[in-house]
Amino acid sequence: xxxxxxxxxxxxxxxxxxxxxxxxxxxxxxxxxxxxxxxxxxxxxxxxxxxxxxxxxxxxxxxxxxxxxxxxxxxxxxxxxxxxxxxxxxxxxxxxxxxxxxxxxxxxxxxxxxxxxxxxxxxxxxxxxxxxxxxxxxxx
Amino acid sequence: xxxxxxxxxxxxxxxxxxxxxxxxxxxxxxxxxxxxxxxxxxxxxxxxxxxxxxxxxxxxxxxxxxxxxxxxxxxxxxxxxxxxxxxxxxxxxxxxxxxxxxxxxxxxxxxxxxxxxxxxxxxxxxxxxxxxxxxxxxxxxxxxxxxxxxxxxxxxxxxxxxxxxxxxxxxxxxxxxxxxxxxxxxxxxxxxxxxxxxxxxxxxxxxxxxxxxxxxxxxxxxxxxxxxxxxxxxxxxxxxxxxxxxxxxxxxxxxxxxxxxxxxxxxxxxxxxxxxxxxxxxxxxxxxxxxxxxxxxxxxxxxxxxxxxxxxxxxxxxxxxxxxxxxxxxxxxxxxxxxxxxxxxxxxxxxxxxxxxxxxxxxxxxxxxxxxxxxxxxxxxxxxxxxxxxxxxxxxxxxxxxxxxxxxxxxxxxxxxxxxx
Lengths: 140, 421
Prior knowledge:
By secondary structure, chain A is of the alpha/beta class. Helix content of chain A is 16%, strand content 33%. Chain B folds into three domains: 5-188, 2-Layer Sandwich (Aconitase, domain 3); 192-291, no CATH class; 295-418, Aconitase, domain 3 (2-Layer Sandwich).
């Protein structure tokens, strides 16, 4: 049985990868180390965690206009998040995803934050407008 | 997205490959946001500091750009003109005082060379985070494409102009094209209040406005806050308020009923919306915000930084008044940051001389964050910093491993004179 979270696609794509999830709003500029592909600010609970190859799920982007460039630098360094999932949409995050073809989906409610844990394998399908969680490692 | 003849011409490459690529990216951005049309803009505010960084907004999208890639990009960029009034955000050196902030001649030369390219493109290199005070002042209902999230808040909310929170890439693309995708805050239906902030304490200083902005940014996220029960601000209070709100949140505008051009009263600010939340900002919330922004209360202070966002000429005059005939502590540095145009005026009017005689420095073009975060510059000793800028207090705590005191301008000056508190 899979759990499905409905939403709306912003940047297209169908991808499957482990989740990296936080209920926080995230800034990219000044919060990530693009070359290492990790969050390197203690101001986020994702401090020290790698976003490369992950489906990054967070409430929304925040703060500086240089956020899209920070995403771009990470992509150029080969540290591409597989997709992003937000509950609220910030145009700076959209710009970073759109320019770099990173699938981006907005979920309709916040239930995803209670049900998905770091490392759970999730599928983002922007055509169907949904994120699906097949089997939470938390439940194994 | 619907393209008119002018845009179709650009997409066909008739105005060069830079504009063609800029439009391709704007279409991707507009498609993602569900925009159907482009809207002509009257101005842009972007970033154009180092040509090798500007080049990253365009193909080739490879890991490292070679010297040849940057040379080729520069050649194309120099032939390409922006279509609207375009200004730029602060940079990572003070162009006139680069030695004082620890930059090298090599860095200074590269910034100067990029400035020459910007000029050829028709971009005004004013290095200002408050261009809406001086240099780029949109009119009511002007559509714009602005970066610098604090300036976005100000022009939407106080001038009634219309811009989304655009990233540096998007504002540069829009400047080159003269249009931006029409969605979000360009549309009437999205310019309505979502949350109420009930202010139940006196805002006694500009830094209190900063604390309020920080509080709201943290709470409201992408919403549009409507502020209630405010005493009437000065322009500079709003500059501080916008600066601090932008360091935390994702909101692109707010309403102060009776002051914001689109909101003569609370009902028109909400535009029929029922507020999602009502947040109270009272004395406790104010005190808590100061506590969050300051992680040390007393001791020797070796650095005092004023000017985030950049100080206006009026604020520089007030600071000069406080410093007149006094000397700051020999163990403390005092830096006051502004745009180069205000610095020159302050020099002409004698304010800069007063600051210099007191032992302080009036600098321009940047800020501590831009000078020293992820930068090759040698950072001066900053064990304990006092600042009147909430955004800077946040950046310093996050990046410098220094202790920070966030306070009002007057107390920061007193700290600089005494060398601590």
